[in-house]
Automatic annotation (TrEMBL):
Organism: Jimgerdemannia flammicorona
Protein localization: Secreted
Protein name in the entry: Pectin lyase fold/virulence factor
Family per record: Belongs to the glycosyl hydrolase 28 family.
Signal peptide: 1-21
Cell wall biogenesis/degradation among keywords: yes
Length: 382
């Protein structure tokens, strides 16, 4: 069965925000688009770009999708520097099993901005019973910002909200509901800040997975802070194959609230089995700071679980002011395997250790679940 796609936005670029004043407006209605949710708009999008946007680059012309509902039945790819894509209306992705790949693809663009109060409807409810959905948004680039976005996916695996990789990127004020990653960091990445994110019945703000097939990972200087995780499968973690190589260092998880999370905080270097014949790797994970991370677990699994490989223990993990209880308020526990550091169950020896802690003396303060009205600029009730 061919893979279906909810919505996949790929950017390989140095992008966001266009600094120049607004230039020429290129309205797709002037190039044959019809807001009737039945006429394919791909040709109009490409014609508006080729005939109107390109001649005005790099003076910040705007490709405008106005108010209305526009069907997209074919893949579209845009390449160029110094322009804006404004979505005021609604784009509906046609349900067609032959429609695969990147649906709306911005390729090697710089000084680029995607904005607007419109929506993109990937019709995930149809794909979830007819095929395999894929990621919503992928951002591969440098010096980017992603913010004020609401993503709602089906209760289905492989429906990542935002996958991001590159240098000097910032994701903030994002609300994701799906059944896989909320926001995930891919290799290679350096200097990424993920904050004020609400993962609502979703996955997690993860790093990885890393090293499939013995690949080499490079992840450093990642900060995840001021986020809320409500009834999610995971919250924050690092996922790696035992055959992974490379380095993950200088990771900060700070000021995080977790409510009924299955796997709240974890490092798992045995995420999945490696391909047959691929030797164990030597991935180095070091310099993990965990501060003011509190909440509840929906299960009797460890609140914090550090599962590292014997030949390459995780090092320099520091846990302060952090504790995950069970949702009923009873005693929780953390578990460490080949993990070195201070706080929690961490120590100076690469062994298996468990730390139990007492039940809650009083209920934890509940976070405020964001109401309707996205996009928003307030910090999600934190």
């Amino acid at each position: 069965m061919k893979k279906g796609i909810l919505f996949f936005l790929a950017l390989a670029c140095t992008m966001l925000h266009a600094a120049t004043a607004v230039g020429k407006i290129c309205n797709i209605l002037d190039y044959g688009a019809k807001p009737d949710n039945s006429t394919d708009s791909s040709a109009a999008l490409l014609a508006a770009f080729d005939s109107c946007v390109k001649p005005n680059l790099p003076n910040n012309p705007t490709l405008l999708v106005p108010i209305g509902t526009f069907l997209l039945s074919k893949n579209v790819l845009f390449k160029g520097d110094g322009w804006t894509f404004t979505l005021k209306g609604n784009i509906v992705i046609a349900f067609d099993p032959a429609l695969v790949g990147s649906l709306i693809h911005f390729f090697y663009v710089s000084n680029f901005e995607f904005n607007g109060h419109g929506t993109i409807d990937g019709q995930g409810r149809l794909w979830s019973v007819n095929g395999k959905p894929m990621f919503h948004m992928t951002v591969l680039g440098n010096n980017t910002q992603v913010y004020n976005i609401r993503i709602h996916g089906e209760d289905h695996g492989a429906t990542d909200g935002i996958d991001i990789g590159g240098w000097h990127n910032h994701v903030h004020h994002v609300h994701v509901t799906n059944r896989d990653e909320c926001v995930t960091v891919a290799s290679p990445s350096s200097n990424i800040l993920i904050e004020n994110v609400f993962c609502d019945n979703a996955g997690a703000t993860n790093i990885g997975s890393l090293g499939k097939g013995g690949g080499t990972a490079f992840i450093q200087n990642i900060v995840m802070r001021n986020n809320v995780y409500y009834q999610t499968e995971w919250a924050v973690g690092i996922k790696a194959y035992p055959c992974a190589n490379g380095i993950v260092r200088n990771i900060t998880w700070e000021n995080l609230i977790m409510d009924q999370v299955v796997y709240p905080v974890y490092i798992d270097m045995f995420w999945q089995n490696c391909d047959k014949g691929v030797a164990n790797g030597n991935l180095k994970i070091r310099g993990i700071t965990i501060n003011n991370v509190t909440g509840t677990s929906a299960t009797r699994r460890p609140g914090m679980n550090f599962k590292c490989i014997p030949n390459s223990p995780c090092e320099k993990i520091a846990v302060t002011n952090s504790k995950i209880w069970r949702d009923d308020g009873t005693a929780g526990y953390d578990q460490c395997e080949n993990a070195l550091g201070t706080g929690s169950c961490l120590g100076t020896k690469a062994t298996m250790t468990t730390m139990m802690f007492s039940p809650m003396s009083s209920p934890l303060p509940k976070h405020t679940i964001p109401k309707s009205g996205w996009p928003r600029t307030d910090p999600l009730g934190l």
